Each structure stands twice: as C-alpha cells, then as structure tokens.
Amino acid sequence: MQKLRTIKGTHDILPWESHKWQKIESVLREVFAAYAYKEVRTPVFEYTALFARGVGEFSDIVSKEMYTFEDKGGESLTLRPELTASVARSFIQHNYQQEAPLHKLWYLGPLFRQERPQAGRQRQFHQFGIEVIGSPHPEADAEVIELACRVYRALGLRNWELHINSIGSIEARKNYMDILRAALEPHKDGLCDTCRERFHGNILRLFDCKNPECGRIMKAHAPAILDHLSPEDTEHFNALRNYLDAVGIPYVIDPALVRGLDYYTRTTFEIKGTALGAQDALCGGGRYDLLIRDLDGPDTPAVGFAAGMERLILAMDAEGLFEQESDGLDLYIAPMDSRCLEKVLPLVTALREKGYRVQLELLRRSVKAMLRDANRQQVQWVAVVGEQELEKRSMNLKNLRENDQLETAWDEIGAVLDRTSKRKPI
Ligand code: HAM
Predict the structure, then answer these.
(1) 216 lies in a domain?
(2) For a substitution probing ligand 1, which of 24, 127, 258 has the most ligand atoms within 8 Å of its CB?
(3) 34, burial (CB in 10 Å: exposed 0-12, middle 13-18, buried 19+)
(4) Structure pTM?
(5) In this structure, are 112 and 255 located in the same domain?
(6) Which of 318, 340, 357 is the last residue of a domain?
(7) How does pLDDT run across 106-150, given as a tens digit for each residue?
(8) Count of structural domains within the chain
(9) Whole-angstrom distance between the N-terminal and C-terminal Cα of the chain?
(10) Cα separation of 340 and 389, whole Å?
(11) What CATH number has the domain bearing residue 372?
(12) Quick one: DSSP state of residue 186?
C-alpha cells in the first residue's frame, strides 16, 4: 500500500520550524502598518477565467502550471497561482473605488503552481505582497519598491540586490517587439526550440530562457527596451529612479527584466538573493495599469509586488538569522500523583490566565526524566508538587537557568515569575 505523505512539491511547516514563519510574519505586520497598508484575504480558488484573462493565456503560469479542475457542477476552477488577479477581482467585485480613491493592500497566503520542484521552488508555496491601486504616479512605484527593500532590511538580510526596468506602455512595447524580432532574425537558427516557437508570439519571453546559447544571443543582439520607450514612459522611469536615489536605495538597471506575467506596463522589478541558487528571485513586481480595465473593471492604474516566503527562509537560514528557538516557558509543574494534579490544576489555570507560560507534566514521568525535558525546553522555573507542597500551599521553585531554589507561597509565584517572564495576560 502506498505510504501516506505530502504531495510532491508541497511541505509541512514543522512545529520546530514554525517560529521562523512567525518571526517573519510579525516583522511584516509592523512594516505594513508603518506604511499604512490594509490586509485583504481572498479565497484560495477562483474561476479559471480570472487567471486566463488576468495573467495571460500564453504565460507559463496559465499555459502549463495551473491546478485546474471541474467541480461537480461542471465549473472550471483553479487553485490560485498568484494573487494580483484575485485582488483585482476583489477590487472590481466590491467597488473599492467608491470607498476611497487609493487602496494600499497587503496579503499573505498559499499559492499553487505545477512546476518542477527544486530548492526554492514548490508546488504549494507562500507569498506576501502588496498592491497599491489607484495611483498612476512614479511615487507609488517608489513606495512599493522601498517597502519591499524595507522588509529585507528589517529582517537583517544582507545578500540581495534590487533590479529595475521599464517595459513601457503597450504601444511602446509593441513597437519594441518588432524591433527585437528584426534584430534577432539573423540569429534565429541558434535559438532553442522553445524560443523559436515564441519568436512570433510574445518574443519578450526569450529574455527568460535559461539556455546558455539563447542567453548569449540575447546579450549580444537584443536592443535594450529602455532605448525604445515613449517620452512619458522615460519620464516615469527617471522619476522613479530619482525617488529611489533620494531614499538611498541602490539598484541595478536590468533591461532584460521583462517578467513572466502578461499584465505589466512600465515599471518591473525584482529583488534577487545573491547567495541563493537557480531560484534566486526573492520578490518580483511592477506596474499593471491595464489589468483592472481588462477584467471589466474601471480604468484604474496599480502597482505591487509579491515575495516568496520559502525563498526568504532559505536566504535567512543561509545568513544564520534565526535565533535558537525558545518557547520562553516560565514554569514547568510536575505533580507527583493524580491527587496532587487535581489540587494544583486551579493554580496552573490561574497562572496561564495571567499569561504565564506554564507547562504541565502530562506523561507521568519520573522527576529525573521530567527535569531532563524541562532543561531541553529551556524552562526558567520547575516545581515538583507532592503532598508536602499541597499542605503548605507553597512550592520549591527551582531556577534551571541559574541553579538556585526558592521556597515560594502559591500566591507569591506570579511575583517570582515576573522577574523573568515576558507574559501578556490572555
Ligand atoms: P512572481 O514573480 O510569479 O510574481 O512571484 C513572486 C515571487 O513568488 C517570486 O519572486 C518567488 O519569490 C515566489 N515564487 C514564485 N513561484 C514560486 C514557487 N514555485 N516556489 C516558491 N516560490 C515561488 C507574482 O506572483 C506577481 N503576482 C507579483 C506582483 C504583485 N506583481 C504585481 N503585484
């Protein structure tokens, strides 16, 4: 019989790893609050048409990677492969524009793409991200990029680099694609089969090809898109650069950064983990002024980014940025028998109510085994409760970190724990 296990490309977040997720999530919440973003949560599955129309039918995500299925009513549904289209759908469906002219939103959640799993690439993965909906101005692009950088700085990550580009408005890009096709025509035979297939379709995808020979041809012969923007596109890009310079954010201008989703206009950017392997994009985003209109919503400009949680954890692990896990337990109580347990339970409950972190022995182990475990869990204080302790309504609190002992009355325990506790009443 087949062993039960996770589906290929999906992972459990194990109890001894979840503290990493919680640390990142708490920093994210602080950063989002400081920039005045509001959280939006959308369902994990949507009608397939949303992604087909939103992300683009010919993108890799839609053409190869979606988990699409028919439900019992015959509807085609898809596990969301990204969140920008879902947020745009939510914006349109709930008429956000009637509430305010500008919406600054953040999200965090699981996504699904049927890609070949490897380090930093899963089939279920998690993204955090933001979308600023309503502003066409470069200061919105700058805020989005600055916020992305702020997250990595706030987490203490050192090995990353910001890449920016502009792929212009639709008209400029169409024009550029013709110029690109003409420039590459003499070198077409050297390209891989996939690039030759894409040559007459979305030729920009050639920039994403990992084949070294295609990379060489592109580097040698592809004209830079930045030289073929409209004056308004160039002005927008230059203003963005000025704002980034003003806040001291270094960047690399990367004319090959066209991104694999079809909805982008003008700004595109990525933050690359410079110590990561092949899957080095920590985050990616850009401006998408036509998406909401293309999904039958009001003509509304927008810009945003999304970032992989798993890749961030890989990068932080590589830089040793997670401290040794500690649950910050205040007290470990070991009753000697069931009578002692019954008598001490109200005290345990009262301490927990006040927010002290109290571990109660549930395995009926010997004192020696219990002490060994309390040490492993890095508990501050331990108390064994027997008949004597019940009679005197006191406890011999043993400080495991400092190796001393303190005879303490039950109603004084809180005061002793307060010396070291980080409690918050619940
Ligand atoms: P994306 O570039 O497809 O953009 O994904 C953003 C980030 O998600 C990547 O940089 C990477 O960190 C992470 N990621 C993507 N696929 C995987 C995977 N299979 N396994 C692990 N991590 C992965 C978007 O999704 C756009 N919606 C971003 C955006 C928001 N643009 C504007 N607003």
Answers:
(1) no
(2) 127
(3) exposed
(4) 0.94
(5) yes
(6) 318
(7) 999 999 999 999 999 999 999 999 999 999 999 999 999 999 999
(8) 2
(9) 46
(10) 9
(11) 3.40.50.800
(12) G
